[in-house]
Design goal:
It is built from 13 helices and 13 strands. The chain is of the alpha/beta class. The strands form 3 sheets. The chain has a 7-stranded mixed β-sheet, with helices on both faces. The chain has a 4-stranded antiparallel β-sheet with strand order 9-10-13-12, covered by helices on one side. Helix 2 packs antiparallel against helix 10. The longest helix has 23 residues. Bound molecules: pyridoxal-5'-phosphate. Pyridoxal-5'-phosphate binds next to helix 4.
């Protein structure tokens, strides 16, 4: 009979779970615990829509009861806004849940999940969680290289993740490149196009992801309420694709995965497209001003990479290092994202904040770069 008190015997995690490094969230305090202005998690500096805040405050239902398991009103709202059939929309507890479910539904031990180097860090976790092998294609100047991705496809590839725009690089590929990537993949490979920052792309520019999701059987597009809608704390994402793909995700998602308040808050947020437009305009203007200020700094090896998202990745190749800039900005009251854990020790990712914050940061970086020896 086993000794039930023998603590040397423990449940054994799966080997593939042991290989996972937990997701590192953006910080909001310095090493000394001091609260800092948080530009490390790509949250919306304008907050959330007043309509969403009001809907969240008004008791949206009886909290002793489960929410609508299918988020019907919210899915109808999304269907109307985006011109999609409602049965092709599935909700997730953040788009994170959907990325994980997509990998889990279509890949497992012995299979490969492919994405580009410097892709969103959750892809590695999503692949390993289901026992699949993550395969990382080389980047092209920090951005997506379609040829490199296609060259990494093997007979074991089951899922390809593409963040467009990508986090943490801000890089983006246009419609023709996305179409070329899709056309180069076997039809039994699922292409997940992660558009967490899709609404930040200039109006009129379109990578064609929704069209591919509507017209083909192997493309899933994910979106989120965490970024431009300013509802990161509510944890709401959604995906669209072929009905059979949506069906698979519905089978394995949490049955009540969007809370009562989450459903009504997000629905109200959808109805305030003026807030979305204001957030997009603010981001385009402030990102352009910030990038211009960095480029005007002169030859200090401080290079902002082209970004289509609500952040800028800055490469430091001069005397001022990314680590020193990160620590210096912290002294100035700002927490940004230094990325040694993602193979980018020379880079800092800075979320676009308010105009005053971006002026302050550009001035601090200039001062640090000029003073660096
Ligand atoms: C590219 C990308 N995809 C997905 C997500 C997940 O967002 P959420 O789970 O809040 O919807 C993020 C969040 O930072 C992201 O950057």
């Amino acid at each position: 009979m086993a000794d039930v008190h023998d603590i040397s015997v423990r449940p054994r995690p799966k080997d593939w779970i042991l290989g996972i490094h937990a997701y590192v969230p953006g910080k909001s305090t310095g090493a000394d615990g001091r609260a800092l202005i948080k530009l490390s998690a790509n949250e919306n500096p304008l907050g959330s829509s007043p309509l969403a805040i009001a809907a969240r405050g008004a008791a949206a239902g009886d909290p002793s009861r489960y929410p609508d398991p299918d988020s019907n009103a919210l899915r109808h709202g999304l269907a109307t806004l985006h011109g999609l059939p409602v049965d092709r929309i599935v909700m997730g507890t953040g788009s994170d849940e959907l990325l994980n479910l997509a990998a889990q539904a279509f890949a497992g031990p012995g299979d490969e999940v492919l994405y580009v180097r410097f892709g969103f860090s959750v892809y590695d976790i999503a692949a390993r969680r289901c026992g699949a092998t993550p395969v990382v294609a080389p980047d092209r100047d920090f951005g997506t290289d379609v040829d490199a991705l296609l060259a990494c496809v093997t007979e074991r590839t089951r899922v390809v993740f593409l963040a467009n725009p990508n986090n943490p690089t801000g890089s983006y590929i246009g419609r023709a490149e996305v179409a070329r990537l899709h056309a180069g993949l076997r039809p039994d490979i699922l292409l997940v196009i992660d558009q967490a920052y899709g609404e930040y792309v200039e109006q009129g520019e379109d990578d064609g992801a929704f069209d591919l999701a509507a017209e083909t059987a192997n493309v899933l597009v994910t979106r989120t309420f965490s970024k431009i809608y300013g509802l990161a704390g509510e944890r709401i994402g959604w995906a669209t694709g072929d009905a059979a793909l949506v069906d698979m995700l519905n089978r394995i998602r949490g049955p009540f995965n969007i809370s009562l308040t989450g459903q009504s808050t997000a629905l109200a947020a959808l109805q305030d497209q003026a807030f979305v437009a204001a957030s997009r305009d603010h981001n385009l203007a402030e990102r352009a001003r910030f990038v211009a200020a960095l480029n005007a700094m002169g030859n200090h090896g401080v290079r902002p990479l082209p970004s289509k998202a609500n952040f800028v990745l800055i490469e430091f190749s001069g005397k001022l290092t990314a680590e020193a800039a990160y620590l210096g900005l912290m002294d100035n009251g700002y927490i940004t994202r230094w990325l040694p854990g993602q193979g980018l020790p020379q880079c800092l990712r800075i979320t676009i904040g308010t105009a005053a914050q971006m002026d302050d940061i550009a001035a601090a970086l200039r001062q640090m770069a000029e003073a660096a020896k």
